[in-house]
Amino acid sequence: MRFLKNELSENHSRLLQRNKVYRQAGYDTGKNQRFVVAKAFPLKGRILEIGTGKGRFLVELLRRVPRVTTVDLSAGEQRFARMNVRQERPGGRARFVVADARKLPWRDRSFDAVVSMNALHHMPQWRRVLHEVERVVRPGGKVVLADFNRRGFAVFDRIHRQEGRIHERARYKFKDVVEWFRKRRWAVSMFKGDCQDVLVALKEEQ
After folding, report:
1. β-pair type (111-117, 196-202)
2. pLDDT (tens digit per residue) in 75-125
3. Burial grade of 73 (CB within 10 A; 0-12, 13-18, 19 or more)
4. How far apart are CA 76 and CA 98, in angstroms?
5. Is residue 138 predicted with pLDDT exceeding 80?
6. CATH of the domain at 66
7. HSE, side-chain direction, 13 A CA sphere, residue 57
8. Mind spelling out the 3-state secondary structure of the chain?
9. What does the alpha-carbon distance between residue 22 and residue 152 come to, in Å, rounded to a whole number?
10. How far apart are CA 30 and CA 68, in angstroms?
11. Domains in the chain: how many in total?
């Protein structure tokens, strides 16, 4: 996909300005991404990201691994992410796929790891998504799910209110996600940061 130079520049400026808004409200994008990365790694083999968004976390991943497949429902969001990756030139390469995480277009055991940052609260049917995640991860593989904690949600709820919008999100408890994996005999670790909760789950070898 080709982009004009001014498109890349304008997209990058919007992203930086948005990050500034977040930081002034109490959410440091870079700091929180580094926290999640520290808990997620090492990652190796075939990696799937669920929820491309604007590509912020994707860029962080591609600074550290050679290739990531990333999936999102929105081709528009992925277009912004493509521009972000092109502008940042993180080193690794991304494959962008538009698909529904409730029905992933890959065979069983296709990936060594699945990662997602701040996307799960956009998925009301999160259990269906987790079933798909479990299906596509090979035995011995890893799942890393990060989402806002109470403080993180408070920050973004406040930003949305100030802008006359509503931060639409599924009401779920992160502990329910932890329990979902534990019932399936995954080895689960939980980490709590400034604005993020992070779950790292290892699938049982078979």
Report:
1. unpaired
2. 999 999 999 999 999 999 999 999 999 999 999 999 999 999 999 999 999
3. middle
4. 10
5. yes
6. 3.40.50.150
7. 25
8. CCCCHHHHHHHHHHHHHHHHHHHHHCCCHHHHHHHHHHHHCCCCCCEEEECCCCCHHHHHHHCCCCEEEEEECCHHHHHHHHHHHHHHCCCCEEEEEECCCCCCCCCCCCEEEEEEECCHHHCCCHHHHHHHHHHHEEEEEEEEEEEECHHHHHHHHHHHHHCCCCCCCCCCCHHHHHHHHHHCCCEEEEEECCCEEEEEEECCCC
9. 10
10. 20
11. 1
CA-based radius of gyration for the chain: 17
CA distance 138 to 149: 29
Q: Copy the structure tokens of residue 148.
A: 């806002």
Q: Are 1 and 82 in contact (CB under 8 A)?
A: yes
Q: pLDDT per residue over 189-203, tens digit each?
A: 999 999 999 999 999
- How high is the pLDDT of residue 121? 95
Residue pair 52/72 in contact by the 8 Å Cβ criterion: yes
